[in-house]
């Protein structure tokens, strides 16, 4: 079988190589991969930024969908032909996180999904919603579950206000899930064209922050001086100070991203005065994934993605690096 592997760090060093097709051991499932989606974490893995000491070679990418090809002895949950997605952390099945549960992350701790076939634990898979294609399903394991848990952390419900940053995978999923819950969503981006696309998905208020960097003041103004109930914070320490000014007293910041460096000191007194909840979100469990999939199935929600042939992995990673995409980037083996 063919796999893309990190032999040395750098997008141009990503190699397409031949490996033996694996066989499932007892309790394992062999999956024929049909589609893989990219996350910013995958880009950092490939470039050697996320974990410079990662053991190489490593097959990257946590997110993929495919069809069960064969099962090992003792497997009862799956049969050949089942359509499945891999879960991000193969050991986090349910309950709160723990050091043991968050080990086994695909494309980092262990080989990921950028291969024609993968062997995974029986418990490391979920069923794909029937109305989704493999390409659509491949967008779910990291960005979808992360956005789902961000909204859970913020207790988003009918009438809540949410701020999304940018128009990448997590942000667009947050928009879609927030609208399902009846929330009002404000969004910022440096691209007016991308904001217009987001408005077609239900975005209520849009700001091109290329025109004004003081987007926190805009958020406060648009919420009648209160601020939003939830900020889906994908920027990192560079945007956190403005997020603290944009969130309402007693509101929540779902801290997800590490995209930007510090632009100003983090105003710790503001955290105290506003009694803000800052919740780190590191994807989630299989149980969270299945809860999200039920909501997706019930609503017939369709993920937003742009597709490339699987053979163009390097090109897709460069597109992610340049941030020219909208929603998710998917590599299709179809």
Please give a structural write-up:
This protein is α/β, with parallel strands linked by helices. The chain folds into 2 domains: 2-139 and 303-332, Alpha-Beta Complex (Quinone Oxidoreductase, Chain A, domain 1), CATH 3.90.180.10; 144-280, NAD(P)-binding Rossmann-like Domain (Rossmann fold), CATH 3.40.50. 28% of the residues lie in helices and 26% in strands. The chain contains 10 helices and 15 strands. The strands form 3 sheets. Strands 3, 4, 5, 6, 7, 14 and 15 form a 7-stranded mixed sheet that branches. It has a 6-stranded parallel sheet with strand order 10-9-8-11-12-13, with helices on both faces. Strands 1-2 form a two-stranded antiparallel ribbon. β14, α10 and β15 form a beta-alpha-beta unit. α3 packs across α4 (169-180) and α6 (215-222) runs parallel beside α7. The chain is globular. It starts with a strand and ends with a strand.
């Amino acid at each position: 079988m063919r796999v893309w592997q990190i032999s040395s760090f750098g997008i141009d060093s990503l190699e397409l190589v031949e490996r033996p097709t694996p066989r499932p051991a007892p309790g394992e499932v062999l999956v024929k991969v049909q589609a893989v989606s990219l996350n910013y974490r995958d880009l950092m893995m490939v470039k050697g930024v996320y974990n410079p000491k990662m053991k190489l070679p490593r097959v990257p990418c946590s997110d993929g969908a495919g069809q069960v090809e064969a099962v090992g002895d003792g497997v009862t949950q799956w049969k050949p032909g089942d359509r499945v997605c891999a879960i991000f952390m193969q050991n986090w099945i349910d309950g709160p996180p723990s050091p043991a549960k968050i080990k086994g992350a695909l494309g980092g701790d262990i080989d990921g999904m950028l291969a024609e076939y993968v062997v995974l634990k029986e418990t490391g898979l979920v069923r794909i919603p029937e109305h989704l294609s493999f390409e659509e399903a491949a967008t779910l394991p990291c960005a979808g579950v992360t956005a789902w848990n961000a909204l859970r952390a913020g207790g988003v419900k009918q009438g809540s206000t949410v701020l999304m940053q940018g128009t990448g995978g997590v942000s667009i999923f947050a928009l879609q899930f927030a609208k399902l819950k009846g929330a009002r969503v404000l969004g910022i981006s440096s691209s007016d064209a991308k904001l217009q696309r987001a408005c077609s998905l239900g975005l209520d208020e849009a700001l091109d922050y290329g025109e004004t960097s003081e987007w926190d003041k805009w958020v406060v103004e648009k919420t009648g001086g209160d601020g939003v109930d939830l900020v889906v914070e994908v920027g990192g320490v560079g945007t956190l100070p403005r997020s603290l000014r944009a969130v309402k007293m007693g509101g929540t910041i779902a801290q997800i991203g590490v995209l930007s460096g510090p632009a100003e000191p983090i105003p710790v007194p503001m955290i105290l005065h506003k009694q803000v909840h800052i919740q780190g979100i590191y994807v989630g469990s299989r149980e969270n994934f299945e809860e999200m999939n039920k909501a997706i199935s019930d609503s017939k929600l369709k993920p937003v993605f742009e597709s490339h042939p699987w053979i163009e992995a390097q090109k897709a990673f460069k597109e992610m690096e340049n941030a020219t995409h909208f929603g998710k980037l998917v590599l299709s083996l179809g």
